[in-house]
Each structure stands twice: as C-alpha cells, then as structure tokens.
Design goal:
GO molecular function, one term: oxidoreductase activity
Distance between the termini: 38 Å
Radius of gyration: 18 Å
Strand content: 25-35%
Order of helices and strands: EEEEEHEEHEHEEEHEEEHEH
Protein name: Anaerobic sulfite reductase subunit B
CATH topology of the largest domain: Rossmann fold
Oligomer: single chain
Largest sheet: 7 strands, mixed
CATH class of the largest domain: Alpha Beta
Helix content: 10-25%
Strand order of the largest sheet: 10-9-8-7-11-12-15
CATH architecture of the largest domain: 3-Layer(aba) Sandwich
CATH superfamily of the largest domain: Nucleotide-binding domain of ferredoxin-NADP reductase (FNR) module
Organism: Longicatena caecimuris
Structural class: alpha/beta
Number of domains: 2
InterPro entries: Cyt_c3_hydrogenase_gsu, Dihydroorotate_DH_Fe-S-bd, FAD-bd_FR_type, FNR_nucleotide-bd, OxRdtase_FAD/NAD-bd, PyrK_electron_transfer, Riboflavin_synthase-like_b-brl, Sulphite_reductase_B
Number of helices: 6
Number of strands: 15
Cofactor: [2Fe-2S] cluster
Length: 266
C-alpha cells in the first residue's frame, strides 16, 4: 500500500532562469497524470517541503516555476540539472478544460499567478480546435519581473489569441502601462452570449477586483474560475493550514468556481 505522505525522487532535467528570483525547474515525471491548475508538494530531505503549482507538463516531465524566498527554495536554487528533487502529487482540482470546449476562453493573471495558468494557455495554443479563441491578459510588476518570455511571444503571435501584456510600473516593448484589470474593458463579453469562460489568478485582492471588473461588463459569476495560491502543507486535508472556514483548499481547490470562491476571500 502506497504511503501518501512519502515523496518520490525525480531528476531535474533543466533549469530555466526567468528572473533574478524565479526559475523554472523541468523535472522528469514519466507517465504523468496531471490536470491543468494542480499543484505538487516539493521537498528536500532535512530541509523542508512546500506546495508549488504546475506551470507546464508533458507526458514525461513536469515544470515548476519557483521563487527564491526562503530556506527550502534557497537550497533548491543551489541544485543543477542531474540533481534530484523529492515530490508528491499532483493534488487538488484543476481547471475544467472539458467544459471550456468551443467557448471563448479568457485568462487574466498577475505576476506569479501567470505560472498556474501557463499550462492552460499552452494547451489552447497547441490545440486551437478546443476553443473559439483566447483572450489573455498577463500583468507584471515591472520589466524585471516578467516571466515566460518565449511563451508570451508565442501567445502574442498566435492567430487565435488576443494577448495583452501589462506592467504596473516601468516600460517595455510590447507591454502596456497599468494593471491587468484595466484592460478587461477591451474584451467583447457582450458579443458572446453564454459561450465563454473566465480564469483569474493572482493575489486575492487582484482576483476580487478583477472579477468585479468583469461582472461590470456583463460577465456572470458562474462563468468565472479562480485559483488560490494558499499555503498548503499536507495536501491531504489533515493539517488545516489551508483551511478557510470549512473549506480545505488543498482538497476542494486550488481551482474554485467564483460562486464558491467569493465566500473564501480572506
């Protein structure tokens, strides 16, 4: 009988530096059964463990975009391709891509919130038949904090994508000034009837006000999905670290329909 608390060792295949503080770790993970929006618990023996969202995956690999912010991540950043990470998962509910089929898909993400939606955007990039089109808004703090440069270029150039890149501060070619939510007004929601789905990921305050901005332009809240980057610990609904009211984010989330999420904003 497998021990659900026991992580397994997997080899790092590549490390892609995104910013001064963030890198994407490509990890060997054969026969993966992962849903877009799920997370893993990543650990190193005698150091610690932390929940990390999946930023991309294939049939044989999984990618984690990690920020260097503490004891565990400091040690992870000292690793190199060929070294091992210990992981368990995937955990939680992902985005219901099957229900997005043949719809207009809107993805609005801010900062590191782009990481949990990256695999979803890449799915629709490579499978245009699965949607009518994609409206993507990705906002970053400033030029030094932009992530996934190559992917952003691909989203901008894809004929079925309508991509807006924004910076809260500073200037950069191809980016507009201001918060991501400022450009919700450019999305033609009122032309779509019921054939659309909206994904919003970022800090809780960003998700709250972006959802309100969408609804100001006619979006019905049952069409909105969000993802909580909440501190999960056990990922099995036992420790209570991620609990909001009576909801365990690690089990029922991290992806929630907004109709549920609006009661969890804390």
């Amino acid at each position: 009988m497998n021990n659900p608390w026991l992580p397994e060792k997997h080899r790092i295949l590549d490390i892609i530096e995104e910013t001064d503080l963030e890198s994407t770790f490509v990890v060997e993970f054969p026969n993966a059964s992962i849903r877009h929006g799920q997370f893993f618990e990543i650990s190193l023996p005698k150091i610690g463990e932390a929940p990390i969202s999946v930023s991309s995956f294939t049939d044989s690999t999984v990618e984690f975009t990690i920020r260097r912010v503490g004891k565990l991540t400091n040690v992870i950043f000292d690793l190199a391709p060929g070294d091992d990470l210990y992981i368990r998962g995937p955990y939680g509910n992902g985005f219901p891509l099957e229900s997005f089929k043949n719809k207009h898909v809107v993805v609005i993400a801010g900062g590191t919130g782009v990481a949990p939606v990256r695999s979803t955007l890449k799915h629709f990039l490579h499978h245009p038949q699965d949607c009518k089109d994609v409206y993507a808004i990705a906002g970053f703090r400033d030029p030094s904090h932009t992530l996934f440069e190559n992917d952003l270029k691909a989203f901008v150039n894809a004929p079925h994508f309508h991509t807006t890149l924004t910076l809260d501060n500073g200037q950069k070619e191809g980016f507009k000034e201001g918060f991501a939510m400022n450009y919700v007004k450019d999305i033609p929601f009122q032309e779509w009837g019921e054939d659309y789905a909206v994904i919003i990921v970022g800090p809780p305050v960003m998700m709250k006000f972006t959802a309100q901005e969408c609804m100001k332009y006619g979006v019905q809240e049952e069409h909105i999905y969000v993802s909580f980057e909440r501190k999960m610990s056990c990922a099995l609904g036992k420790c209570g670290h991620c609990k909001i009211n009576e909801t365990y984010v690690c089990l029922e989330g991290p992806v929630f329909p907004y109709t549920k999420a609006k009661t969890l904003m804390d």
